[in-house]
Amino acid sequence: MRSNRFAVMRGTALATGLLLALAACSGDDSGDKGGDSGGQTLKGVKLEVAAVWTGAEGNGFKKVLEGFQKKTGATVTLTPTGDNTATFLQTKIQGGAPPDVAMLPQQGVIAEFAKKGWIKPLSPEVQTLVKQNYAKVWQDFGTADGKLYGLYFKAGNKSLVWYRTKAFQDAGVQPPADWASFVKAAQTLSDAGTTPLAIAGGDGWTLTDWFENVYASQAGVEKYRQLSKHEIKWTDPSVKQALKTLAEIWSKPTFMSGGVAGANSLLMDQAVTTVFGDQPKAAMLSGADVVSANITETKSKVGTDALVFPFPKTGEKPPLVGAGDAAVMLKDNKGSQEFMKYLASPEAAAQWAKVGGYISPNKGLDMSNYPDEVQRTSAKAVIDAGDDFLFDMSDLYPAAFGGTKGSGEWKRLQDFLKNPNSVDATAAGLESDAAKAMKS
User: Fold this and answer.
1) Residues 190 and 138 in one domain
2) CATH number for the domain that contains residue 205
3) Dihedral pair phi/psi, residue 375, rounded to 5°
4) pLDDT for 374-420, tens place per residue?
5) Does residue 420 sit within a domain?
6) What angle do helix axes 423-439 and 237-250 make, rounded to 10 degrees?
């Protein structure tokens, strides 16, 4: 999302039928050694790749595709999926016109598509590269029924809060490490006449990120993984406690740009502008590492005007929740296999890393490829987490619950943002929706 699967600009995705042809122009030479494909071995081969990325993310991914085209001679067409990747692909598959490769932002969709026979297992050669370059947790995320289907090309660190340096300096606020300090900092900013937060509730997936960060730290890793698999119910006391904690922020309209109504309509790209644009209206926002790419599209500079701190801990340890987008093959052909082999290499990851707004879970990628220390630190946290990395919970569920606009968890948390007193009703609604999605 989601990812967010954090995906700035997804709400403005182009119409699903639009095809963006990419010229086979030169990409940056990363200096990293990747797979052994090359020598224009795919000259004349046409490949269609579907992905949710547009805006800054789309531009970063185009660098990857351009690098592949230069290396192999293939012609690649990028098809934007729109906000609901699973539905878009299902329509294309049932219509007999699936893309060759697709990037799936929800781990639960890999299992769904594998069960239906819509995606193909990775070749032994690609599996070898994945085992060489990726921690076991990323291999597990891409596995369904004992077979490796997904290659996680993009990761995301969602346990971050970005802030405008001047707003904090003017109010005399320091980056908070725990939730109590976070609430206190928000109150101090508000008292100083600065709206503390831009909450992008119009994109429901951003609210799931808030919940997951609070829950991961407060309830702990074991409970988080149990809830991710629906081994405990959403009516569990731990869920209700997390909702009550969120309400300490969400119940205060003065803490949110535009109040409750504004927060429920604000999209993530708008939230970035609200904090870092020419006329800022808030001091900070919770968002994944990709926010850095969108900040650079404003006049603010990451590392000086814009800084970041870890999402405040609500328990003994701070959370480290993230997401990832996995490449899967819908067609098993030479072009698809070579592309997957390329994506498994540090060389491919370096193409996007140099642009910024991107984290690779590929251990072979040299950290010097990231453009600044902020992004290197965030990427290192994901790599160092190894098998303790917690995947975005909403992405682990079927898309009907965790990844569909206007329904499931997205809608329940949007409603909770409007009425933070409805803890029991929200928990019951989440459980009802989750149970229904798990049965389908």
Assistant:
1) no
2) 3.40.190.10
3) -75, -35
4) 889 889 989 988 888 899 999 889 889 998 899 999 999 999 999 99
5) no
6) 120
Does 415 fall in a domain? no
For tokens 């890393």, what's the residue? 353
CA neighbor of 282 nearest in space, from 189, 177, 158: 189
pTM above 0.90, yes or no: no
In a domain, 434, yes or no: no
Q: Which helix (H) or strand (E) holds 157?
A: strand 151-157
Which residues on neighbouring strands pair with residue 178, listed in sequence order? 313
Query: Which residue, 318, 344, 363, sits at the end of a domain?
Result: 318
Strands 20-21 and 75-80, by their bridges, are antiparallel
CA–CA gap between residue 424 and residue 200 (Å, rounded)? 24
pLDDT digits (tens, 9 = 90+) for 232-267: 999 999 999 999 999 999 999 999 999 999 999 999
- Exposure class string for 346-380: b at 16+ Cβ within 10 A, else e: bbbbbbbbbbbbbbbbbebbeeebbbeebbbebbe
Domain of residue 228, residue span: 160-318
